[in-house]
Amino acid sequence: MTRARWDEELLAAPELSAGAAARRLREGLQAHGFELLAGATTRARRIFLDSFDGRLQAAGLAAVHLRRDGAETVGRLAVVKREGGAEVAGEDRFPAPGGPILALDLAVGPVREALLPVIDVRALLPLAELDGELTEYAVLDDERKTVTRLTIEQAGLVAGVAPGPLLRVRLRLQEVRGYRSDRQRVSACARELGFVVPRHRLLDEAVLAAGGNPGGTSAKVAVELIPSQRSDAAAAAVLRALAEVVEDNLEGAIADLDVEFLHDLRVAVRRGRSVQKELRGVFAPDALAHFRREFKWVQQVTGRSRDLDVYVLEFGEMRALVPEPIQADLDLVVRVLGEQRAAARRAMARELGSPRMAALRRDWDACLEELVALPVADRPDAEVAVAELAGRRIAKVYQRMRKMGEAIDGHSPSEDYHEIRKQGKELRYLLELFGAPLFPAAAVKPMVKALKRLQDVLGRHQDREVQRRTLRELAEPVSAQPGRAEALMAMGVLAERLYEDELAARDEFAERFAEFTAQPLREQVKATFR
Fold first, then answer.
1. CB-side exposure of 487: number of CA atoms within 13 Å?
2. CA–CA distance, 506 with 512 (Å, rounded to integer)
């Protein structure tokens, strides 16, 4: 196990510089029989990185790019433990990141292996940059033996071309093996001198000073609701939270920082459309019709980009479906997919940055702000208790899914599977947004679990169908490329394998649907949602 770089971290008083902190510490330690011996001083420029949703922090890790003593661009990228700073993995001669870093794009090695299981397809984004001076010290006892090692650091935020604000001086203590009691005495002395435990680690303080959020920005929506709350007020609260997710992810989706920005934006829009549909009686009809059209437009202009994102991400898995000798023949398909994805992204960015999108965001915010104050004559469900309305809708959609599923067999058209999948999404959103905060977990969780298992099969069926259709659409552009014959043959084999898996998903549907409509679950739904 890698040893921690420090065992304890303390903050100096706000008014102290690094030199003044060292002098105060030296005088205090002398009174306790210790000597403070200065060592090397180095200058370090650090860039702290994490994913937009803070996945490294959640895993107890941090990513740091470090350049020492004036190195201009090349340094060391390291994954370290947030507690104690021990390095998990590192790579030298790594260029200073000026933008997103995808783990999938890194060279095979320890850093990639450390990052990929944590951040997956999310990009590491630069969150804050610090310029700091670090001086090492040794604490000697009366026999001049080193009993503790110290580092005193003064760092400031790098803000464009001008120096940023200085952060408080930090003192780090590292225990020397066999001298734990001495390290504890040094720590107690430092505390007597006014050094205190920091509220935030250095990287978090730097991110806060840069105006960021150290924990990242989550796309999860969990709005607290009261069962007796008016349905229009509850709907407005949930829809505001979903609108915030759209706002949080819009810029990253347009800039294509990573594929999850667009995914989270689309899920938030889709959830919002589901609330509009299932709780339609809380809205004025004309306004609802307008916003449903506009949000449908957002789904349409982002759909092609998302489909291609998924296709590119999953192509490695799909490639493995064909015999190994012809897998390389699909490289041409990957190149054409990349070109189409880039074109779709450019078209989508224009739409998401358009006046129409800006007007939708502005008008939707105004609509939610005034919703509860509107007359209720044409809003029959506005004043209904949200638990009553949500319960009715959950029960209704569940019963609708039961009827749809009972009519499906192995010969049913793909559209039938697609329609029940859409209903499953509506039900899941109702359960997550309204069921979880309003009804007992003992009723909601088993229902969500069975629904997820059913959705996995339906999603696989839909994905394979879309992937086969995309292969057909790719046939023409691939035919215009050199090496097309081999690529087209490999595409045919792949299409056949995808179809086989689509049929396998159909075979699994009956089993998963039976779980979803089992007697205990039906009785639980009937007893809870009505």
1. 21
2. 10
Burial class (CB in 10 A: 0-12, 13-18, 19+), 441: exposed
Residue 483 token pair: 């090496």
Q: Count of CB atoms within 10 A of residue 108's CB?
A: 7
Q: Low-confidence residues of the chain, pLDDT below 50?
A: 1
pTM to 2 decimals?
0.91
| pLDDT given at position 159 | 76
What's the pLDDT at 207?
A: 93
Neighbouring residues of 350: CB distance < 8 A, sequence distance ≥ 6? none
Report the alpha-carbon distance of residue 510 to residue 424 in Å, rounded: 15
Structure tokens that stand for 285 in this block: 């009809």
How far, CA to CA in Å, does 95 sit from each of 72, 75, 463?
Answer: 9, 6, 38
Q: What is the pLDDT of residue 73?
A: 79
Residues 50 and 474: their CA atoms lie apart, in Å, by 36
pLDDT at site 161: 59
Determine phi and psi for 256, rounding to 5 degrees: 55, 50
Q: Annotate 238-288 with three-state secondary structure.
A: HHHHHHHHHHHHHHHHHHCCCHHHHHHHHHHHHHHHHHHHHCHHHCCHHHH
Q: What pLDDT was estimated at residue 1?
A: 43
CB 140 within 8 A of CB 37: yes
Do residues 157 and 130 make contact, with C-beta atoms less than 8 angstroms apart? yes
Measured distance CA(333)–CA(471) in Å, rounded: 9
CA distances from 312 to 108, 128, 162, 226 (A): 20, 31, 41, 43
Tokens of 247: 């706002």
Whole-angstrom Cα distance, residue 468 to residue 480?
A: 20
The DSSP code for 176 is P
pLDDT at 483: 75
Listed residue (528, 450, 466) closest to 502, CA to CA = 466
3-state DSSP assignment of residue 125:
strand
Torsion sign over Cα 338, 341, 347, 349? negative
**Do residues 254 and 351 lie in contact, with contact meaning Cβ atoms separated by under 8 Å?**
no
